[in-house]
Design brief:
By secondary structure, the chain is mainly α. It has helices at about 30-40, 45-55, 60-75, 100-110, 120-130, 145-175, 180-185; strands at about 5-10, 15, 45, 80-85, 85-90, 95-100. The chain is built from seven helices and six strands, in the order E-E-H-E-H-H-E-E-E-H-H-H-H. The model has no long low-confidence stretch (mean pLDDT about 85).
Length: about 190
């Protein structure tokens, strides 16, 4: 049985257990921290996370708030996260799938080539654009008083939108070149 937790970030935020049960962490900040750790896939110091999620608080308030949110994250998803006194991260090899990372990996690998070498590549890009990109990154997901996170979210939103547009442009060019006019026009 697949025990992978699925994190949908394109077109809103949904966290699903393998049983298709929706996971609620009970806190927007805990969810935002999960998304940030999952999308960056590297350890972050507690100070960095505190600065990102609590703008204008004293250091003791900030660190206390972060401690509480990391505890919530560990309580719900302890098998996925590694939290130490210095930093927090998603465990390497953790059973976690993120739509945005698959979208980026799929499109990135084909768009760096100068065009598609075969119909299979075009089909995989088409699938990524139509199946994975369901809307803007974290659309409708807001966390108040988190200027640093909001700036990161907007940067990622632009990145994924640009990647999707490049994918559609490459698909349209490939299909129009191959005389698949209807498909090419639809992607254009």
């Amino acid at each position: 049985m697949d025990d992978t937790l699925k994190l949908y970030t394109l077109g809103g935020l949904r966290i699903l257990r393998p049983s298709a049960e929706v996971v609620s962490l009970g806190s927007r900040k805990a969810e935002a921290i999960l998304v940030y750790l999952a999308c960056t896939r590297r350890p972050h110091s507690r100070e960095t996370l505190a600065d990102l999620f609590w703008d204008e608080r004293s250091q003791s308030q900030t660190m206390g708030n972060l401690r509480r949110e990391l505890s919530t994250l560990h309580q719900h998803l302890g098998e996925l996260v590694e939290i130490s006194r210095q930093e927090a991260a998603i465990l390497p090899g953790a059973p976690l799938w993120v739509d945005a990372l698959e979208f980026e990996q799929t499109l990135g690998s084909y768009l760096h080539e100068a065009g598609f070498s075969n119909p299979g590549a075009a089909s995989r890009v088409d699938d990524a654009v139509t199946r994975l990109y369901r809307g803007a990154f974290l659309e409708g997901f807001t966390v108040y008083d988190c200027q640093g996170f909001e700036e990161w979210r907007l940067t990622m939103r632009e990145h994924y939108q640009r990647l999707g547009v490049e994918g559609l442009r490459a698909l349209a060019a490939y299909e129009l070149e191959g005389q698949e006019t209807q498909k090419g026009l639809a992607h254009a």
